[in-house]
Design a protein that fits this description.
CATH class of the largest domain: Alpha Beta
Number of helices: 18
Helix content: 40-55%
Largest sheet: 6 strands, mixed
Shape: globular
Number of strands: 16
Oligomer: single chain
Strand content: 15-25%
Length: about 475
């Protein structure tokens, strides 16, 4: 666990970057620091690995004040991902990834072999390890940066706006990759961003910082959207927070509607009303688009299928979120969002009203469960107090009884133990000393550890680098 207790960072000119920060980052969770430029989110994160020293207050990692830990040793045990990858341009990708394990004393051969595995873990072809950073795309460089941070398997990972320099498509891919890795590795991650949507998508908990370095709210993403602490948080989140809140509601409670479908060979015989739509699918059942009466007429006159259809909007999965279901309904020309299974086959549809009803039903159920928990805690409190009081009353007679007992005479125990004669066997302590001497004599026959290590392997040259195939 990472804790900040009354932490303040004030620079010599009087500028306050972080103002009396107190919070806890739970183990195995992804915690996001978010806020506008100059709010102290990056400064706060950099105080964890002592890249920045606080003016006052205490930062601890697993209960230990980081101020008492050697900065180099501290940083070698914490993964760090920065903007634009931060790779060393004169080193190959594989050597960039192997940097920290080598600094920790691992041999280059072992570090490089492990680095190939980490490249695969972050979704990169191990063959890219032989390239230099300049030969990679921006997204690939950022994945290498993540791989380098994970190479030594640190328990803590610090990520300073790692996806800010890539385009939206690559950013979505990298965000999905981080969520996948976190589901597998369960690292303690502190992630800094200025993008509230990114914070809500990635974070188990979100800390919103305001101008002047003051913490405005520290909460779960769903609580942040539904109960902003003040006007600053509400304004920073934006006016559409109700729509974004839908991503925390499950689509599994939706009753999917049947959708009338046709294949391309059935279009010419259709008779549709002016406001009626049909979903056109392939022979295997995957959606292709929507067609109305005007589209049927164009197709019957020899028009191509593509020109006769209207794009179908987004799709959603029945086990997804209400946000994706509502988006599918709103983007569909028919007003019906299309649900597909894992193979992309149509399984039904939903309307926007269905989504709103499902959200309200889940909200009421959540409130009912919260009310039951509060009532249960209210009943348990008096019972616990009564048990503690009863336990306190039971202690007094026992203490009195002990006090009234007469102490046993100390001499009786001594009289029962006969004195040991000089002819008896030596004490266990003496025997262990003799055995220890024998062990030392035996140890002299064994080779020194240094000799074993030096015979392990020769220094690896650049021509002897293991290729990815050697992992097998």
């Amino acid at each position: 666990m990472i804790t900040f207790t009354g932490v303040t960072k004030r620079y010599p000119d009087g500028t306050v970057a972080v103002d009396d920060l107190t919070l806890e980052v739970p183990d195995g969770c992804l915690t996001v620091f978010v806020g506008p430029s100059g709010c102290g989110k990056t400064t706060s994160m950099r105080m964890i690995n002592r890249m920045v020293e606080p003016t006052s207050g205490v930062v601890t990692v697993d209960g230990r004040d980081v101020a008492g830990v050697d900065p180099v040793k501290l940083r070698l045990g914490i993964g760090y991902v920065i903007q634009s990858g931060g790779l060393m341009p004169h080193q190959r990708v594989i050597d960039n990834v192997a940097t920290v394990p080598v600094l920790q004393g691992k041999s280059r051969r072992a570090a490089r072999l492990a680095a190939y595995e980490v490249l695969e873990r972050v979704g990169l072809d191990p063959k890219l390890g032989e390239r230099y950073p300049a030969q990679l795309s921006g997204g690939q460089q950022q994945r290498v940066g993540v791989a380098r941070a994970l190479a030594a398997d640190p328990p803590i990972l610090l990520m300073d706006e790692p996806f800010s320099a890539v385009d939206p498509v690559v950013r979505d891919e990298l965000q999905a990759e981080i969520l996948r890795l976190q589901s597998e590795l369960r690292k303690t991650i502190v992630f800094v961003t200025h993008d509230i949507d990114e914070a809500i998508k990635l974070g188990d908990a979100v800390a919103v910082f305001g101008v002047g370095g003051a913490l405005q709210q520290y909460d779960s993403p769903s609580r942040l959207l539904s109960n902003p602490a003040n006007d600053f948080v509400a304004e920073f989140i934006g006016a559409d927070r109700g729509y974004r809140l839908l991503q925390f509601f499950s689509a599994t409670t939706l009753d999917l509607r049947p959708i009338p479908t046709v294949t391309e060979g059935e279009i010419d015989g259709l008779m549709l009303a002016p406001d009626e739509w049909r979903l056109v699918t392939t022979d295997s059942g995957t959606p292709f688009g929507w067609i109305d009466a005007a589209g049927v007429e164009r197709h019957s006159q020899g028009g191509p299928l593509y020109d006769s259809l209207t794009a179908g909007g987004s799709l959603f999965h029945p086990d997804g979120t209400l946000r994706s279901a509502l988006d599918a309904a709103l983007s569909s020309p028919s007003g019906i969002g299309v649900a597909v299974d894992g193979g992309g086959v149509v399984v039904g549809g939903t309307a926007a009203d269905d989504v709103v009803d499902a959200m309200e039903s889940q909200r009421q159920e959540s409130q009912r469960q919260d009310s039951q928990r509060q009532e249960s805690r209210g009943r348990e409190a008096p019972e616990e107090a009564a048990e503690e009081q009863a336990a306190g009353e039971d202690v007094e007679p026992a203490e009195l009884a002990v006090a009234d007992e007469e102490p046993e005479p100390a001499e009786s125990a001594a009289e029962e133990e006969p004195a040991q004669s000089a002819d008896e066997e030596p004490e266990p302590a003496e025997m262990s000393a003799e055995a220890e001497a024998d062990d030392v004599a035996d140890a002299d026959d064994e080779p020194e550890l240094a000799e074993i290590v030096t015979e392990d392997e020769p220094e690896l040259t650049a021509d002897e680098d293991p290729q990815p195939a050697e992992k097998d």
